[in-house]
Amino acid sequence: MGNDLSKLGYEEFLGELKERIRNAQVRAALAVNRELILLYWQIGQEILQRQQQQGWGAKVINRLATDLRKAFPDIKGFSARNLLYMRAFAGAYPDIEIVQQVVALIPWGHNVRILDAVKTPKERIWYIQQTIEYGWSRNVLIHQMDSQLYRRQGSAITNFSRVLPDPQSELAQQVIKNPYSFDFLSLGKQALERELETALIQHIREFLLELGVGFSFVGSQYPLVVDGKEYRIDLLFYHFRLHCFVVIDLKVVEFEPEFSGKMNFYVSVVDDLLRGTDDKPTIGIILCRTKSKTVAEYALRDVHKPIGISTYHMGTPLPEELQMSLPTIADLEEEMEAIAAEVEQSLISQEIEQLSLFADPATPDEE
Questions:
Q1: Range with the lowest mean pLDDT among 60-64, 167-171, 183-187?
Q2: What's the rounded Cα separation, in Å, for the pair 355 and 56?
Q3: What 8-state DSSP symbol labels residue 104?
Q4: C-beta of residue 178 within 8 angstroms of C-beta of residue 148
Q5: Closest Cα to residue 233, out of 271, 205, 188?
Q6: What's the first-to-final CA gap in the chain, in angstroms?
Q7: Separation between Cα atoms, residue 222 and residue 155, nearest integer Å
Q8: Is the pTM higher than 0.90?
């Protein structure tokens, strides 16, 4: 029977059914979420209008929360805090069409976080669109807002508009940030370039998150052999949306004009040795601690390979005097052992006390 089913294309049929069911589940979940968001928006609008028209004060929120939870005890979401968010949500998005077409496509928890963190309508919509496009979880969304991604995206100095065709140039410009946030690192100001590179590789997950969607790590100190001599790229990536290799050169100093010449060489070699027939032109990113905007623009003016210049910042390590005052691992282990001993003694005392409660009380004669 199994052979007969195989001949009839059973596995293919089963696969199609599974995909159809999954798609239906996703559509159903999106529909439920959309209806919930629209309900919250309508409740928020009603609260706003009645407070404005009938002069209801803030106390109505608490009363409304109590009455709604009595009426719908099995439904969560009608706390006073959430009702306040509904009112703020309706105030932030007065246009129902924007809510229906964009805002209602992400979960309520995402919307609440955006309301908390972002104050301008344009920036809110941008984060919502990015969440929809890339499927950001709530934690990823919070990270991107905390790092001010909206303000950093597309602000690097590049020559893309001159050397890349549209829409590749615009997409590439949006991919590169300025500055990059390496707050997950805590290297000192005197760190060497190889130390920075090693630290980024050790934190590759956080590094890829900061680079953005589409980057795939190819290698560090990637070797390129030209005329019998080996040259090494600090970091090499491939970007699946841009369909091209991305060369990253790390500098722990201020940008210097000669950096662009070196990157131009790297990009040319990668184009010749690694670029496939379907790949777009390789892009170079020079990451420096600081840069002069004027110097960077001059350095790229006559360069014909696509290159961007960005800066980065890192988490600040603790001052040396503070590090000296921190306990060592041995100190911490000794303290933990002392605490454990205290806890054990306390538990023994409690057990003795509990046992004494169950003992027969002394009679007057025995006393």
A1: 183-187
A2: 60
A3: G
A4: no
A5: 271
A6: 89
A7: 28
A8: no
